[in-house]
Specification:
It is a single chain. By secondary structure, this protein is α/β, with parallel strands linked by helices. It has one domain: Rossmann fold, CATH 3.40.50.150. It is about 45% helix and about 20% strand. The protein has 9 helices and 7 strands, in the order ααααβαβαβαβαβαββ. Strands 3-2-1-4-5-7-6 form a 7-stranded mixed sheet, with helices on both faces. Strand 6 and strand 7 form a beta hairpin. Helix 4 packs parallel to helix 5 and helix 7 runs parallel beside helix 8. It is globular and about 45 Å long. The chain starts with a helix and ends with a strand. Bound molecules: S-adenosylmethionine. The site of S-adenosylmethionine has 20 residues, from helix 5 and strand 2. Belongs to the class I-like SAM-binding methyltransferase superfamily. Cation-dependent O-methyltransferase family. It catalyses: (E)-caffeoyl-CoA + S-adenosyl-L-methionine = (E)-feruloyl-CoA + S-adenosyl-L-homocysteine + H(+). It comes from Olea europaea subsp. europaea.
């Protein structure tokens, strides 16, 4: 039954069946996944918090998107072991840059040898700590305004609105911000009495608020895609 289908599947996608998702992975994603991304994905799978990683199909999507928009100067908030970071680093040119932020350096360093082996670590400027103060500093500084081609946000959902207030200044007109998890495990349409896990319930209101705010923001064009846990692309138009 359609209304139950999201609870029946155990994968990191909102598709109607495991088989369909598996088909995408096996037909399109895994055969073309760069060796380094495969290695990082397999390494991450052994980590206790592996649920946090960006899925392989989303990694492929980000890699393609970055090439389509010719992204060079990028930012990522929420690195974990670096799967989306590596997808970005492999997509941008050799002199491209990624300002990458995470409160946890250990997880980044777990994946770093794979990123180094892939020959793309020189593109990454990793900052350990909460992202918000760094963004505030960049806004205050002035010289970063309108300089980013692409920004990927995959961190603390309760701060997405705060991030957006700052990132809209930092992304260039015509550039793209991608907010991850905007369908939040399908919970955005769950009834009030649905048995949601505690953290899903807690962050759901923030995700709902973000989705409303993005839809009402005339400075951006948006497109919400059911890739991974939902990703909303925002193209700055003014
Ligand atoms: C879902 S994971 C990121 C997954 C990553 N994009 C990947 O491809 O594997 C979320 C990350 O956000 C980080 N995080 C949480 N709060 C943060 C904050 N205030 N500033 C920066 N990073 C934060 C967490 O430490 C965690 O590594």
């Amino acid at each position: 039954m359609a209304e139950n289908r999201h609870q029946e599947v155990g994968h990191k996608s909102l598709l109607q069946s495991d088989a369909l998702y598996q088909y995408i992975l096996e037909t399109s994603v895994y055969p073309r996944e760069p060796e380094a991304m495969k290695e990082l994905r397999e390494l991450t799978a052994k980590h206790p918090w592996n649920i946090m990683t960006t899925s392989a199909d989303e990694g492929q999507f980000l890699n393609m998107l970055l090439k389509l928009i010719n992204a060079k100067n990028t930012m990522e908030i929420g690195v974990y072991t670096g799967y989306s970071l590596l997808a970005t680093a492999l997509a941008i040119p050799d002199d491209g840059k990624i300002l990458a932020m995470d409160i946890n350096r250990d997880n980044y360093e777990l994946g770093l040898p794979v990123i180094e082996k892939a020959g793309v670590a020189h593109k990454i400027d990793f900052k350990e700590g909460p992202a918000l103060p760094v963004l505030d500093q960049m806004i205050e500084d002035g010289k970063y305004h309108g300089t980013f081609d692409f920004i990927f946000v995959d961190a603390d959902k309760d701060n997405y609105i705060n991030y957006h207030k700052r990132l809209i200044e930092l992304v260039k007109v015509g550039g793209v911000i991608g907010y991850d998890n905007t369908l939040w495990n399908g919970s955005v349409v769950a009834p009030p009495d649905a048995p949601l896990r505690k953290y899903v319930r807690y962050y759901r209101d923030f995700v709902l608020e973000l989705n409303k705010a993005l839809a009402a923001d005339s400075r951006i064009e948006i497109c919400m895609l059911p890739v991974g846990d939902g990703i909303t692309l925002c193209r700055r138009v003014s």
